[in-house]
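Hi F.,

I've been meaning to write this up properly since the lab meeting, where we talked about keeping a consistent format for the predictions we share between groups. The idea is simple: the sequence comes first, exactly as it goes in, then the C-alpha coordinates exactly as they come out, then a line or two of notes. No screenshots and no reformatting. I'm using this chain as the first example so we have something concrete to point to.
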Amino acid sequence: MHRTSGILLHPTSLPGPYGIGDLGPGAFGFVDFLQAAGQGLWQMLPLGPTGYGDSPYQCLSAFAGNPLLISPDLLAEDGWLDAADLAGPTFPDERVDFGAVRRWKLDLLGLAWERFRERAGAEDREAFAAFCRGQAHWLDAYVLYAGLKATHEQRPWTEWPQKLALRAPAALAAWGEVHAEGLERERFLQFLFARQWRRLRAYARERGVRLVGDIPIFVAHDSSEVWSHPEWFYLDAQGVPEVVAGVPPDYFSATGQRWGNPLYRWDRLAETGYGFWVDRLRHTLELVDLVRIDHFRGFAAYWEIPGEEATAVRGRWVPGPGRDLFRALREALGAELPLIAEDLGVITEDVEALRDDLELPGMAILQFAFESTEGGFGNNQYLPHNHRRNLVVYTGTHDNNTVLGWWAGAEEPLRDHVQRYLNTDGAEVHWDLIRAALASVADAALFPLQDALGLGAEGCMNRPGTTQGNWNWRLASAGLTPDLAARLRELCGLYGRLSHPAD
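Output, unedited:
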Protein backbone atom coordinates (compact mmCIF):
# COMPACT_ATOMS: atom_id res chain seq x y z
CA MET A 1 0.00 0.00 0.00
CA HIS A 2 1.46 3.35 -1.02
CA ARG A 3 1.14 6.40 1.20
CA THR A 4 -2.43 7.63 0.97
CA SER A 5 -5.45 8.76 2.95
CA GLY A 6 -9.21 8.53 2.72
CA ILE A 7 -12.62 8.88 4.30
CA LEU A 8 -14.93 6.38 5.95
CA LEU A 9 -18.54 6.86 4.84
CA HIS A 10 -21.13 4.16 4.27
CA PRO A 11 -23.21 4.69 1.09
CA THR A 12 -26.46 4.73 3.08
CA SER A 13 -25.21 8.00 4.63
CA LEU A 14 -24.96 9.83 1.31
CA PRO A 15 -27.40 12.69 0.65
CA GLY A 16 -30.27 12.33 -1.79
CA PRO A 17 -34.05 12.65 -2.10
CA TYR A 18 -35.07 9.04 -1.53
CA GLY A 19 -34.55 8.63 2.21
CA ILE A 20 -31.26 6.72 1.99
CA GLY A 21 -27.95 7.16 0.21
CA ASP A 22 -27.56 5.09 -2.94
CA LEU A 23 -25.26 4.38 -5.90
CA GLY A 24 -26.53 7.29 -7.96
CA PRO A 25 -25.64 10.99 -8.19
CA GLY A 26 -24.80 11.34 -4.50
CA ALA A 27 -22.17 8.58 -4.72
CA PHE A 28 -20.62 10.01 -7.90
CA GLY A 29 -20.60 13.44 -6.27
CA PHE A 30 -18.79 12.04 -3.24
CA VAL A 31 -16.12 10.55 -5.50
CA ASP A 32 -15.69 14.00 -7.05
CA PHE A 33 -15.29 15.46 -3.57
CA LEU A 34 -12.67 12.85 -2.66
CA GLN A 35 -10.72 13.65 -5.79
CA ALA A 36 -10.87 17.39 -5.08
CA ALA A 37 -9.76 16.73 -1.49
CA GLY A 38 -6.76 14.67 -2.62
CA GLN A 39 -8.12 11.50 -1.05
CA GLY A 40 -7.22 8.10 -2.47
CA LEU A 41 -9.52 5.84 -0.43
CA TRP A 42 -13.24 5.56 0.17
CA GLN A 43 -13.92 3.09 2.97
CA MET A 44 -17.40 1.72 3.57
CA LEU A 45 -19.12 -0.87 5.73
CA PRO A 46 -20.41 -4.26 4.48
CA LEU A 47 -22.71 -3.86 1.49
CA GLY A 48 -25.17 -6.71 1.97
CA PRO A 49 -28.92 -6.58 2.60
CA THR A 50 -29.53 -5.94 6.29
CA GLY A 51 -31.96 -7.68 8.59
CA TYR A 52 -33.23 -6.91 12.08
CA GLY A 53 -31.61 -3.79 13.52
CA ASP A 54 -30.39 -2.67 10.07
CA SER A 55 -26.80 -3.52 10.95
CA PRO A 56 -24.48 -4.01 7.98
CA TYR A 57 -22.61 -6.46 10.20
CA GLN A 58 -25.67 -8.74 10.34
CA CYS A 59 -26.37 -9.15 6.63
CA LEU A 60 -28.82 -11.60 5.11
CA SER A 61 -26.11 -12.76 2.71
CA ALA A 62 -22.32 -12.74 2.47
CA PHE A 63 -22.58 -12.17 -1.29
CA ALA A 64 -25.74 -10.22 -2.15
CA GLY A 65 -25.85 -6.45 -2.45
CA ASN A 66 -28.33 -4.32 -0.53
CA PRO A 67 -31.25 -3.50 -2.87
CA LEU A 68 -31.86 -0.30 -0.89
CA LEU A 69 -28.62 1.05 -2.40
CA ILE A 70 -29.96 0.79 -5.95
CA SER A 71 -30.36 4.28 -7.42
CA PRO A 72 -33.82 5.23 -8.73
CA ASP A 73 -32.20 7.98 -10.81
CA LEU A 74 -30.00 5.49 -12.64
CA LEU A 75 -32.97 3.19 -13.19
CA ALA A 76 -34.75 6.10 -14.87
CA GLU A 77 -31.68 6.76 -17.03
CA ASP A 78 -31.70 3.11 -18.12
CA GLY A 79 -35.38 3.21 -18.96
CA TRP A 80 -36.66 0.90 -16.23
CA LEU A 81 -38.49 3.75 -14.48
CA ASP A 82 -40.23 6.88 -15.73
CA ALA A 83 -39.69 10.30 -14.18
CA ALA A 84 -43.18 10.24 -12.70
CA ASP A 85 -42.36 7.01 -10.86
CA LEU A 86 -39.75 8.78 -8.73
CA ALA A 87 -42.27 10.91 -6.87
CA GLY A 88 -42.68 9.47 -3.42
CA PRO A 89 -43.12 10.36 0.23
CA THR A 90 -41.00 13.00 1.90
CA PHE A 91 -38.21 11.39 3.89
CA PRO A 92 -36.07 12.96 6.64
CA ASP A 93 -32.73 14.32 5.44
CA GLU A 94 -30.66 13.68 8.56
CA ARG A 95 -31.57 10.06 9.35
CA VAL A 96 -32.55 6.92 7.44
CA ASP A 97 -36.00 5.68 8.35
CA PHE A 98 -35.24 2.14 7.21
CA GLY A 99 -38.79 0.86 7.57
CA ALA A 100 -40.35 3.62 5.48
CA VAL A 101 -37.57 3.52 2.90
CA ARG A 102 -37.79 -0.25 2.54
CA ARG A 103 -41.55 -0.23 1.97
CA TRP A 104 -41.42 2.49 -0.69
CA LYS A 105 -38.26 1.41 -2.45
CA LEU A 106 -39.06 -2.29 -2.78
CA ASP A 107 -42.34 -1.35 -4.44
CA LEU A 108 -40.41 0.94 -6.79
CA LEU A 109 -37.93 -1.83 -7.61
CA GLY A 110 -40.82 -4.17 -8.30
CA LEU A 111 -42.08 -1.63 -10.83
CA ALA A 112 -38.61 -1.52 -12.42
CA TRP A 113 -38.80 -5.30 -12.83
CA GLU A 114 -42.13 -5.01 -14.61
CA ARG A 115 -40.73 -2.34 -16.92
CA PHE A 116 -37.65 -4.47 -17.65
CA ARG A 117 -39.84 -7.39 -18.65
CA GLU A 118 -41.87 -5.10 -20.92
CA ARG A 119 -39.09 -3.00 -22.44
CA ALA A 120 -35.75 -4.82 -22.31
CA GLY A 121 -34.04 -5.56 -25.61
CA ALA A 122 -31.98 -8.63 -26.46
CA GLU A 123 -28.71 -7.15 -25.17
CA ASP A 124 -30.10 -6.33 -21.72
CA ARG A 125 -31.87 -9.68 -21.44
CA GLU A 126 -28.67 -11.52 -22.27
CA ALA A 127 -26.71 -9.42 -19.77
CA PHE A 128 -29.22 -10.39 -17.09
CA ALA A 129 -29.07 -14.07 -18.08
CA ALA A 130 -25.26 -14.00 -18.08
CA PHE A 131 -25.24 -12.45 -14.62
CA CYS A 132 -27.53 -15.19 -13.30
CA ARG A 133 -25.35 -17.91 -14.82
CA GLY A 134 -22.10 -16.41 -13.55
CA GLN A 135 -23.34 -15.84 -9.99
CA ALA A 136 -25.43 -19.01 -9.64
CA HIS A 137 -23.05 -20.47 -7.01
CA TRP A 138 -24.51 -18.07 -4.44
CA LEU A 139 -27.43 -16.39 -6.20
CA ASP A 140 -29.73 -19.40 -6.46
CA ALA A 141 -29.63 -20.14 -2.74
CA TYR A 142 -29.95 -16.47 -1.84
CA VAL A 143 -33.01 -15.72 -3.96
CA LEU A 144 -34.74 -18.82 -2.60
CA TYR A 145 -33.93 -17.74 0.96
CA ALA A 146 -34.98 -14.12 0.31
CA GLY A 147 -38.21 -15.23 -1.33
CA LEU A 148 -39.07 -17.56 1.53
CA LYS A 149 -38.28 -14.85 4.04
CA ALA A 150 -40.52 -12.36 2.25
CA THR A 151 -43.47 -14.75 2.17
CA HIS A 152 -43.04 -15.54 5.87
CA GLU A 153 -43.25 -11.90 7.02
CA GLN A 154 -39.45 -11.57 7.23
CA ARG A 155 -39.30 -13.99 10.15
CA PRO A 156 -36.00 -15.83 10.79
CA TRP A 157 -35.70 -19.08 8.88
CA THR A 158 -35.92 -21.13 12.09
CA GLU A 159 -39.54 -19.92 12.38
CA TRP A 160 -40.60 -21.14 8.93
CA PRO A 161 -42.47 -24.43 8.42
CA GLN A 162 -40.05 -27.20 9.27
CA LYS A 163 -39.76 -28.71 5.79
CA LEU A 164 -38.76 -25.32 4.38
CA ALA A 165 -36.53 -24.37 7.28
CA LEU A 166 -34.64 -27.66 7.06
CA ARG A 167 -34.60 -27.58 3.23
CA ALA A 168 -36.58 -30.71 2.37
CA PRO A 169 -35.92 -30.99 -1.41
CA ALA A 170 -39.50 -31.76 -2.44
CA ALA A 171 -40.93 -28.92 -0.35
CA LEU A 172 -38.41 -26.40 -1.73
CA ALA A 173 -39.02 -27.51 -5.31
CA ALA A 174 -42.78 -27.17 -4.93
CA TRP A 175 -42.47 -23.76 -3.30
CA GLY A 176 -40.00 -22.54 -5.92
CA GLU A 177 -42.31 -23.58 -8.76
CA VAL A 178 -45.20 -21.58 -7.31
CA HIS A 179 -43.03 -18.51 -6.66
CA ALA A 180 -40.82 -18.65 -9.75
CA GLU A 181 -41.62 -15.10 -10.85
CA GLY A 182 -40.75 -13.68 -7.43
CA LEU A 183 -37.41 -15.49 -7.54
CA GLU A 184 -36.63 -13.93 -10.91
CA ARG A 185 -37.41 -10.51 -9.45
CA GLU A 186 -34.92 -11.14 -6.64
CA ARG A 187 -32.29 -12.10 -9.23
CA PHE A 188 -33.04 -8.91 -11.12
CA LEU A 189 -32.45 -6.77 -8.03
CA GLN A 190 -29.00 -8.30 -7.62
CA PHE A 191 -28.33 -7.72 -11.31
CA LEU A 192 -29.23 -4.04 -10.87
CA PHE A 193 -27.00 -3.66 -7.82
CA ALA A 194 -24.03 -5.27 -9.61
CA ARG A 195 -24.50 -3.16 -12.75
CA GLN A 196 -24.73 0.12 -10.81
CA TRP A 197 -21.80 -0.81 -8.60
CA ARG A 198 -19.57 -1.49 -11.61
CA ARG A 199 -20.29 2.00 -12.92
CA LEU A 200 -19.42 3.62 -9.61
CA ARG A 201 -16.22 1.64 -9.18
CA ALA A 202 -15.03 2.48 -12.69
CA TYR A 203 -15.78 6.17 -12.07
CA ALA A 204 -13.81 6.09 -8.80
CA ARG A 205 -10.86 4.29 -10.35
CA GLU A 206 -10.61 6.87 -13.15
CA ARG A 207 -10.31 9.56 -10.47
CA GLY A 208 -7.64 7.86 -8.38
CA VAL A 209 -10.04 6.70 -5.66
CA ARG A 210 -9.79 3.10 -4.48
CA LEU A 211 -12.71 1.49 -2.67
CA VAL A 212 -12.18 -0.20 0.70
CA GLY A 213 -14.72 -2.87 1.61
CA ASP A 214 -15.42 -4.70 4.83
CA ILE A 215 -15.91 -8.42 5.54
CA PRO A 216 -17.24 -9.40 8.96
CA ILE A 217 -15.51 -12.56 10.10
CA PHE A 218 -18.85 -14.11 11.11
CA VAL A 219 -22.14 -14.28 9.22
CA ALA A 220 -25.61 -13.65 10.62
CA HIS A 221 -27.62 -16.60 11.87
CA ASP A 222 -30.58 -15.39 9.82
CA SER A 223 -28.73 -15.51 6.52
CA SER A 224 -28.71 -17.42 3.29
CA GLU A 225 -25.41 -19.12 4.10
CA VAL A 226 -26.45 -20.49 7.49
CA TRP A 227 -29.83 -21.64 6.14
CA SER A 228 -28.35 -23.32 3.06
CA HIS A 229 -25.22 -24.75 4.74
CA PRO A 230 -26.02 -25.54 8.39
CA GLU A 231 -23.25 -28.14 8.36
CA TRP A 232 -20.70 -25.32 8.45
CA PHE A 233 -21.91 -24.07 11.85
CA TYR A 234 -22.54 -25.24 15.42
CA LEU A 235 -26.32 -25.59 15.28
CA ASP A 236 -28.74 -28.00 16.93
CA ALA A 237 -31.17 -30.16 14.96
CA GLN A 238 -33.62 -27.26 14.62
CA GLY A 239 -30.97 -24.82 13.42
CA VAL A 240 -30.58 -22.92 16.70
CA PRO A 241 -26.95 -21.93 17.51
CA GLU A 242 -25.37 -24.01 20.26
CA VAL A 243 -22.63 -21.41 20.74
CA VAL A 244 -22.40 -17.84 19.48
CA ALA A 245 -19.79 -15.19 18.77
CA GLY A 246 -18.90 -12.05 20.66
CA VAL A 247 -16.12 -10.45 22.64
CA PRO A 248 -15.43 -10.39 26.38
CA PRO A 249 -15.78 -7.22 28.48
CA ASP A 250 -13.66 -4.44 26.98
CA TYR A 251 -13.41 -0.69 26.34
CA PHE A 252 -16.86 -0.61 24.75
CA SER A 253 -18.89 -2.69 27.24
CA ALA A 254 -18.52 -3.96 30.81
CA THR A 255 -20.49 -7.11 29.93
CA GLY A 256 -18.77 -7.64 26.61
CA GLN A 257 -20.64 -7.90 23.34
CA ARG A 258 -22.84 -10.88 22.56
CA TRP A 259 -23.16 -10.65 18.79
CA GLY A 260 -25.19 -13.83 18.47
CA ASN A 261 -23.61 -15.02 15.23
CA PRO A 262 -23.26 -18.80 14.94
CA LEU A 263 -19.68 -20.04 15.09
CA TYR A 264 -18.01 -21.90 12.25
CA ARG A 265 -17.11 -25.54 12.32
CA TRP A 266 -13.68 -24.71 10.99
CA ASP A 267 -12.82 -28.38 10.59
CA ARG A 268 -15.76 -28.82 8.20
CA LEU A 269 -14.72 -25.75 6.20
CA ALA A 270 -11.15 -27.04 6.04
CA GLU A 271 -12.41 -30.25 4.43
CA THR A 272 -13.72 -28.14 1.53
CA GLY A 273 -10.47 -26.20 1.15
CA TYR A 274 -12.23 -23.25 2.84
CA GLY A 275 -14.29 -22.89 -0.34
CA PHE A 276 -16.80 -20.54 1.27
CA TRP A 277 -14.08 -18.13 2.33
CA VAL A 278 -12.32 -18.33 -1.04
CA ASP A 279 -15.58 -17.53 -2.84
CA ARG A 280 -16.46 -14.81 -0.35
CA LEU A 281 -13.16 -12.95 -0.66
CA ARG A 282 -13.04 -13.38 -4.43
CA HIS A 283 -16.54 -11.93 -4.72
CA THR A 284 -15.70 -8.98 -2.47
CA LEU A 285 -12.57 -8.20 -4.46
CA GLU A 286 -14.75 -7.97 -7.57
CA LEU A 287 -16.45 -5.03 -5.84
CA VAL A 288 -13.61 -3.23 -4.04
CA ASP A 289 -9.84 -2.77 -4.16
CA LEU A 290 -8.96 -3.37 -0.50
CA VAL A 291 -10.78 -5.35 2.17
CA ARG A 292 -10.87 -4.70 5.88
CA ILE A 293 -11.34 -8.00 7.75
CA ASP A 294 -13.48 -7.22 10.77
CA HIS A 295 -12.46 -8.98 14.01
CA PHE A 296 -9.23 -10.38 12.57
CA ARG A 297 -8.26 -11.65 16.01
CA GLY A 298 -10.95 -14.34 15.63
CA PHE A 299 -8.77 -16.17 13.11
CA ALA A 300 -6.21 -16.74 15.87
CA ALA A 301 -8.76 -17.37 18.63
CA TYR A 302 -12.41 -16.40 19.06
CA TRP A 303 -14.66 -15.87 22.08
CA GLU A 304 -17.18 -18.72 22.29
CA ILE A 305 -20.34 -17.97 24.27
CA PRO A 306 -22.89 -20.67 25.18
CA GLY A 307 -26.05 -20.03 23.20
CA GLU A 308 -28.23 -19.71 26.30
CA GLU A 309 -26.11 -16.95 27.87
CA ALA A 310 -27.64 -13.46 27.77
CA THR A 311 -24.30 -11.60 27.85
CA ALA A 312 -20.74 -12.23 26.73
CA VAL A 313 -19.28 -12.43 30.24
CA ARG A 314 -19.26 -16.22 30.37
CA GLY A 315 -17.27 -17.56 27.47
CA ARG A 316 -13.93 -19.03 26.49
CA TRP A 317 -11.22 -18.52 23.91
CA VAL A 318 -11.14 -21.21 21.22
CA PRO A 319 -8.37 -21.52 18.60
CA GLY A 320 -9.29 -20.32 15.10
CA PRO A 321 -8.04 -21.60 11.73
CA GLY A 322 -4.96 -19.35 11.72
CA ARG A 323 -2.47 -19.66 8.88
CA ASP A 324 -4.22 -22.65 7.35
CA LEU A 325 -7.10 -20.50 6.13
CA PHE A 326 -4.86 -17.82 4.67
CA ARG A 327 -2.70 -20.45 2.98
CA ALA A 328 -5.81 -21.63 1.15
CA LEU A 329 -6.81 -18.05 0.27
CA ARG A 330 -3.37 -17.29 -1.14
CA GLU A 331 -3.27 -20.48 -3.17
CA ALA A 332 -6.63 -19.64 -4.72
CA LEU A 333 -6.41 -15.84 -5.05
CA GLY A 334 -2.73 -14.94 -5.12
CA ALA A 335 0.03 -14.28 -2.60
CA GLU A 336 -0.61 -10.54 -2.30
CA LEU A 337 -3.99 -10.35 -0.61
CA PRO A 338 -5.10 -6.69 -0.34
CA LEU A 339 -6.35 -6.95 3.23
CA ILE A 340 -6.43 -4.74 6.32
CA ALA A 341 -6.50 -6.63 9.62
CA GLU A 342 -8.90 -5.10 12.14
CA ASP A 343 -6.80 -6.03 15.15
CA LEU A 344 -8.58 -4.08 17.88
CA GLY A 345 -9.77 -5.37 21.24
CA VAL A 346 -8.04 -8.07 23.26
CA ILE A 347 -4.93 -8.59 21.14
CA THR A 348 -2.46 -11.26 22.21
CA GLU A 349 0.90 -12.34 20.87
CA ASP A 350 -0.61 -15.05 18.67
CA VAL A 351 -2.83 -12.47 16.92
CA GLU A 352 0.13 -10.16 16.29
CA ALA A 353 2.23 -13.08 15.07
CA LEU A 354 -0.48 -14.12 12.59
CA ARG A 355 -0.91 -10.56 11.31
CA ASP A 356 2.82 -10.00 10.95
CA ASP A 357 3.48 -13.39 9.39
CA LEU A 358 0.90 -12.54 6.73
CA GLU A 359 2.43 -9.05 6.39
CA LEU A 360 -0.96 -7.42 6.79
CA PRO A 361 -1.41 -3.85 8.01
CA GLY A 362 -3.17 -3.55 11.34
CA MET A 363 -5.13 -0.60 12.69
CA ALA A 364 -4.34 2.22 15.13
CA ILE A 365 -7.13 4.35 16.61
CA LEU A 366 -6.09 7.80 17.79
CA GLN A 367 -8.99 8.07 20.23
CA PHE A 368 -7.42 5.10 22.05
CA ALA A 369 -3.92 6.57 21.90
CA PHE A 370 -4.23 8.90 24.86
CA GLU A 371 -5.20 6.33 27.47
CA SER A 372 -2.37 5.31 29.75
CA THR A 373 -0.79 1.88 29.39
CA GLU A 374 1.69 -0.07 31.45
CA GLY A 375 4.83 2.04 31.64
CA GLY A 376 3.09 5.39 31.14
CA PHE A 377 1.24 7.44 28.57
CA GLY A 378 4.08 7.52 26.05
CA ASN A 379 4.08 3.75 25.58
CA ASN A 380 0.57 3.52 24.14
CA GLN A 381 0.95 1.69 20.82
CA TYR A 382 -1.58 3.94 19.09
CA LEU A 383 0.38 7.18 19.67
CA PRO A 384 1.83 8.41 16.39
CA HIS A 385 5.46 8.16 17.53
CA ASN A 386 4.90 4.40 17.99
CA HIS A 387 3.41 3.81 14.54
CA ARG A 388 4.98 1.67 11.83
CA ARG A 389 4.61 2.00 8.06
CA ASN A 390 2.55 -1.15 7.54
CA LEU A 391 -0.43 0.29 9.39
CA VAL A 392 -3.72 2.09 8.86
CA VAL A 393 -4.30 4.92 11.31
CA TYR A 394 -7.81 6.20 12.09
CA THR A 395 -9.10 9.08 14.16
CA GLY A 396 -11.96 6.72 15.01
CA THR A 397 -14.14 4.09 13.35
CA HIS A 398 -17.87 3.52 12.93
CA ASP A 399 -17.85 2.02 16.45
CA ASN A 400 -16.34 5.13 18.07
CA ASN A 401 -17.94 8.36 19.10
CA THR A 402 -16.96 11.24 16.83
CA VAL A 403 -13.81 13.04 17.89
CA LEU A 404 -15.81 16.00 19.21
CA GLY A 405 -18.25 13.67 21.00
CA TRP A 406 -15.30 11.83 22.54
CA TRP A 407 -13.65 15.12 23.52
CA ALA A 408 -16.83 16.41 25.18
CA GLY A 409 -16.87 13.40 27.49
CA ALA A 410 -13.13 13.23 28.13
CA GLU A 411 -11.80 13.66 31.65
CA GLU A 412 -9.16 16.24 32.44
CA PRO A 413 -6.08 13.93 32.51
CA LEU A 414 -6.86 12.72 28.99
CA ARG A 415 -7.54 16.26 27.76
CA ASP A 416 -4.25 17.41 29.25
CA HIS A 417 -2.37 14.58 27.54
CA VAL A 418 -3.93 15.39 24.16
CA GLN A 419 -3.20 19.09 24.46
CA ARG A 420 0.41 18.59 25.49
CA TYR A 421 1.12 15.85 22.96
CA LEU A 422 -0.45 17.66 20.01
CA ASN A 423 0.53 21.16 21.20
CA THR A 424 -3.03 22.38 20.91
CA ASP A 425 -5.59 24.26 22.96
CA GLY A 426 -8.26 21.80 21.81
CA ALA A 427 -10.36 24.41 20.00
CA GLU A 428 -10.31 22.27 16.84
CA VAL A 429 -9.36 18.94 18.31
CA HIS A 430 -10.96 17.04 15.42
CA TRP A 431 -8.56 18.72 13.00
CA ASP A 432 -5.70 18.13 15.40
CA LEU A 433 -6.36 14.38 15.26
CA ILE A 434 -6.84 14.41 11.48
CA ARG A 435 -3.51 16.22 11.12
CA ALA A 436 -1.83 13.72 13.47
CA ALA A 437 -3.20 10.82 11.42
CA LEU A 438 -2.01 12.36 8.15
CA ALA A 439 1.42 13.15 9.61
CA SER A 440 1.89 9.59 10.86
CA VAL A 441 4.45 7.33 9.21
CA ALA A 442 1.59 4.83 8.64
CA ASP A 443 1.00 4.10 4.97
CA ALA A 444 -2.73 4.86 5.16
CA ALA A 445 -4.70 7.37 7.21
CA LEU A 446 -8.50 7.25 7.37
CA PHE A 447 -11.14 9.18 9.27
CA PRO A 448 -14.94 9.19 9.36
CA LEU A 449 -16.44 12.05 7.38
CA GLN A 450 -18.18 13.14 10.60
CA ASP A 451 -14.77 14.08 12.04
CA ALA A 452 -13.87 16.23 9.04
CA LEU A 453 -17.27 17.92 9.39
CA GLY A 454 -16.68 18.59 13.09
CA LEU A 455 -19.83 16.82 14.27
CA GLY A 456 -20.50 15.88 17.87
CA ALA A 457 -22.11 12.74 19.25
CA GLU A 458 -25.15 13.33 17.03
CA GLY A 459 -22.97 12.08 14.17
CA CYS A 460 -22.35 8.62 15.66
CA MET A 461 -22.91 5.74 13.27
CA ASN A 462 -23.01 2.97 15.88
CA ARG A 463 -23.00 2.65 19.64
CA PRO A 464 -21.66 -0.84 20.44
CA GLY A 465 -23.77 -2.81 22.87
CA THR A 466 -26.99 -1.06 21.79
CA THR A 467 -29.54 -2.32 19.26
CA GLN A 468 -31.68 0.73 18.50
CA GLY A 469 -30.98 3.98 16.67
CA ASN A 470 -27.78 2.90 14.94
CA TRP A 471 -26.57 2.95 11.32
CA ASN A 472 -28.99 5.70 10.27
CA TRP A 473 -26.83 8.87 10.18
CA ARG A 474 -26.95 10.82 6.91
CA LEU A 475 -24.86 13.60 5.46
CA ALA A 476 -26.56 16.92 4.81
CA SER A 477 -26.48 17.81 1.14
CA ALA A 478 -24.56 21.04 1.82
CA GLY A 479 -21.85 19.35 3.89
CA LEU A 480 -19.23 18.73 1.18
CA THR A 481 -17.98 22.24 0.56
CA PRO A 482 -15.05 23.40 -1.61
CA ASP A 483 -13.44 24.87 1.52
CA LEU A 484 -13.49 21.47 3.23
CA ALA A 485 -11.97 19.80 0.17
CA ALA A 486 -9.28 22.48 -0.03
CA ARG A 487 -8.35 22.09 3.63
CA LEU A 488 -8.01 18.32 3.30
CA ARG A 489 -6.05 18.63 0.08
CA GLU A 490 -3.61 21.07 1.65
CA LEU A 491 -2.93 18.72 4.57
CA CYS A 492 -2.53 15.72 2.26
CA GLY A 493 -0.05 17.65 0.16
CA LEU A 494 1.83 18.74 3.26
CA TYR A 495 2.21 15.14 4.45
CA GLY A 496 2.78 13.43 1.13
CA ARG A 497 -0.60 11.72 0.80
CA LEU A 498 -2.09 13.36 -2.30
CA SER A 499 -3.87 10.94 -4.61
CA HIS A 500 -3.63 11.16 -8.37
CA PRO A 501 -5.76 9.46 -11.04
CA ALA A 502 -2.72 7.47 -12.16
CA ASP A 503 -2.24 5.91 -8.70
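Notes:
The mean pLDDT is 95.
The first strand starts at residue 4 and ends at 8.

If this format works for you, I'll send the rest the same way.

G.
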